[in-house]
TrEMBL record:
The gene is dhaL. This is Dihydroxyacetone kinase subunit L. It comes from Rhizobium bangladeshense. The keyword Transferase applies. PROSITE patterns: DHAL (PS51480). The keyword Kinase applies. SMART domains: Dak2.
Length: 211
């Protein structure tokens, strides 16, 4: 599968649609252990990213520039902590595939893993601290695990499963980063909203790879 900027336009719409469908659910999760805006923030960011990427001329725009446009739009649309985290993720995805016009399955896997790395470095969170890193880290590791040349859909199906498990695992954690860290033991029993939205985005990306 060779992935072009035209395909990335489709990917960002897919992500925006899936996040929009889960907007209220994500706000509810954030209402329990945060300030209740996570669904609104992710919906605004993903919608803005899809619009910005959709407005590009795919014949004139390399994937790196498309990821950069998504990053800028996401950052401008979101005032919450998820803004700079996903903006960094998209910038890193773009940097990972610099100078390519069509992405191979391995290229796309590297871009995917770079997103996780960017989020982790920007937020300085480690796995186990009840954040979106608990979804992104295992998903990136799962995506990179199969040998080079493995089909993208196969690798991302594994990433999707790891993301779901990682997101679920935040239920039993206390938070070391973000707003929820102020609530101590009271957050135990509740999934982290950023971990949940990450699992949705990763499922959208896996769906994209299957299509
Ligand atoms: P805010 O807390 O500013 O309202 P959001 O509601 O959009 O931001 O996002 C909250 C989510 O951001 C959390 O559920 C968590 O997953 C994630 N998060 C917060 N701080 C960090 C961090 N330092 N590193 C990684 N993820 C973080
Ligand atoms: Mg919030
Ligand atoms: Mg907020």
């Amino acid at each position: 599968m060779a992935i072009s900027t035209k395909d990335l336009q489709r990917l960002f719409v897919l992500i925006a649609d899936d996040i929009a469908a889960n907007r209220d659910h994500l706000c509810e999760l954030d209402g329990v252990i945060g300030d209740g805006d996570h669904g609104l923030a992710m919906d605004a960011g993903c919608e803005a990213a899809a619009k910005a990427v959709g407005a590009l001329d795919p014949a004139q725009t390399a994937p790196t520039a498309a990821f950069n446009a998504a990053a800028k739009a996401f950052l401008n649309a979101v005032g919450a902590s998820s803004g700079p985290l996903y903006a960094t993720a998209f910038m890193r995805a773009g940097a990972a595939v610099k100078d390519k016009s069509d992405l191979s399955d391995d290229d796309f896997r590297r871009a995917f893993a770079a997103m996780a790395q960017g989020i982790q470095e920007r937020g300085k969170a480690e796995p186990g601290e009840k954040t979106m890193v608990d979804t992104w880290r295992p998903a990136a590791d799962a995506a990179l695990a199969p040998a080079s040349g493995t089909s993208l859909s196969e690798a991302l199906d594994m990433a999707e499963r790891a993301a779901r498990q990682g997101s679920e695992a935040t239920r039993n954690m206390t938070a070391a980063k973000g707003r929820a860290s102020r609530l101590g033991e009271r957050v135990i029993g509740h999934i982290d909203p950023g971990a949940a939205s990450a699992a949705i985005i990763i499922a959208s990306i896996a769906k994209f790879a299957r299509e």
